[in-house]
Batch of 2 targets.
Target 1
Amino acid sequence: MKIIVVGAGISGCVCAWRLERAGHEVTLLEKGRGVGGRMATRRMEGARIDHGAQFFTARDPRMLELLSHWQKENAVTPWYDHIPGRPDLPTGHRYRGMDGMTSPAKILAREFRVETRFFVEHIYRNESGWSVEEKGGEGRMLKSDHLVLTIPSVQLLDLFQRSEYELDDFTLSRLRSIRHTRCLAVLGIMDRPSMLEHPGTITHPVDEIDWISDNQIKGISEDPSCTIHASDEYSQKFWDAPDPERIPQLLSVTEDQLGVKITSWASHRWGFAKPVVTFGASHWHSSERNLTLAGDGFGGERIENAALSGWDAADSIIL
Ligand SMILES: Cc1cc2nc3c(=O)[nH]c(=O)nc-3n(C[C@H](O)[C@H](O)[C@H](O)COP(=O)(O)OP(=O)(O)OC[C@H]3O[C@@H](n4cnc5c(N)ncnc54)[C@H](O)[C@@H]3O)c2cc1C
């Protein structure tokens, strides 16, 4: 069967990978330049910076199967299992991508066709199957027998509305109830290595900040660089504020905590960071409509749950 998967986050990549391995002809469409979605890594002035998700867990047997595949490909490595001096935090293995958090998605994406810079503007269904139309760009139009959508719920509902595609009221109301936090992220270049010890992270040093990490100690950057994630509350409050108003406070706390000067920086707004209200099932599937929905808004918070959502979505088509 020809299947189009939309969204190259971990849920879309896992889903496409399993479908391709089951013998389907899969094409994955992604509006961005590469795969990974919120598992995002960026180059800045020679440094490598994870500016979205920081680590993943692997507890479920299916995630352990993915972990083993990534380890064989040398794409992931353990990062830490506890933060020294923080007995209050849960322990357990946290893994990182070998070259940043995009590595695991890149390994999966080697096994199926990927079209990047493809913003899905409209979806249409008729007797012969699905048509998926690109916004602008090359005006690509692809066809498939089955469609899997793994984009965040707000974008999903927008896509349905633009396409005048209707779902039943019960499913729509569950989709509308999905909520994500926001996160204002700062990527910083530091003038010297920080004074943190392994694993190079600080959580919640002040109310305004959820997370600071040192990408050099993490092991993904040769040059000293850091990532700062503001809290949901701070991010909401300063979402539309200009950088000079919202960034200096985050920089100043980080410089104090790390014992460095941040010589240059960039900001990034994650509009859908972590789900706080989910759909209530790991995915949604309709064999009558040949349509399946997945992502962390279904599976729940954490990369592992998003990956398992993609896995379950694939199985609902395969089995
Ligand atoms: C700042 C931050 C920190 C986090 N930290 C952690 C962490 O440390 N550990 C952890 O386990 N989880 C963490 N998370 C959560 C984790 O990143 C997510 O739960 C997970 O990556 C979601 O994967 P996904 O496939 O559901 O969605 P996404 O990764 O968002 O993928 C969806 C994809 O769809 C694409 N898309 C959207 N609309 C369209 C369209 N119309 N056409 C084509 N493509 C489209 C997007 O570009 C995107 O690539 C963090 C998230 C953020 C933002």
Note: The chain has two domains: 2-46+100-178+278-318, 182-270.
Target 2
Amino acid sequence: MLADPRFSARLDLAGSAIRRNAPDAGPPGAFLFMDPPDHTRCRKPLTGRFTVRRMRLLEPRIAETVEATLTAMERGGPPADLVTQFALPVASQVICALLGVPYAGHEAFERQSLDMVDPTKDEAERAAAGEAMFQMLHALVRHKRAEPADDLLSGLTGSDLDDVELTGIAMVLLFAGHETSANMLALGTFALLRHPDQLAALRAGESDVDDVDGAVEELLRHLSIVQYEVNRAALADVEVAGETISAGESVLVSLPLANRDGDRFPDPDELDLTRATGGHLAFGHGVHQCLGQQLARIELRLGCTTLLRRFPDLRLAIPAEEVPLRTGRGIYGVDRLPVAW
Ligand code: HEM
């Protein structure tokens, strides 16, 4: 379904219950909710900026951010909340630096990102949060056009996209770039702390878990944090696995379910850092496959390895059952992760 052009990602056709009520199809430029050729036109100027090679160049800076954030966390604790003192600041600083968004405004955009998709808020509140983020980024895009700096948004002002489209693109990147990585860093740490044997093997960097990149892929597969966000609508009657989906019907494509398919991954519910994870769908598939996946992998690898190296006795500061899981949202995570060392 994700590779089939008979399914549309347009928000007005395919949105989740929250989004289907949105007044329009999302801001211009928000290519996550577009189909080709519009999608192609907006994504194309970005693809060369997210290659493995370009992302590798960011590694030293990401490593510095991780170290500095952990130093601050160490000074303030124990205990510490791994979400607000590590995962969120690392993810937000990395995407801010890449885009050229001032990190000083992080509290506002982090709150707006949560509110925009909060199922407990009413439509007006969600729209107001989206509008506030749009206005902040629109002003920033105009500023970049007038005074370009050495960052991604300034670079995009050289493309044929207009300011409103650039703002929509910036919104997608800022939202997708911090919420996902932050939740993955925190939830990934929680998963490791609940599997002490595998954590020990990973720390040792030898025995059976000697491949950190492979461990990161398994955490991505096992946790599949993008839960309810992948929505599509059939543009024609389409038969999928013996079921007919009629034109106009919308479907939720469950990445967690695909990633826990026992035919593909034996004992799929088990976290096994040594397993073969090829073909997992944590980053989606098809034209909308995650643009930031190489960046996310670097953040996760550096984040996890540095955290484990600097805090050899890291442990949960509350019982695992009391860790507040963020189950009601499109992106799975933990609200707080109190840790000690
Ligand atoms: C562990 C972290 C991440 C996960 C699990 C993740 C997952 C995903 C998934 C599943 C999609 C496809 C959605 C769909 O088909 O409807 C997606 C799209 C996207 N992601 Fe990520 N993502 C992560 C991190 C990032 C980062 C760090 C960025 C930063 C730039 C990013 C930018 C995007 C963009 C721009 C899209 C839209 C692509 C398109 O529509 O063409 N993601 N992501």
Note: The longest strand covers residues 231-234.
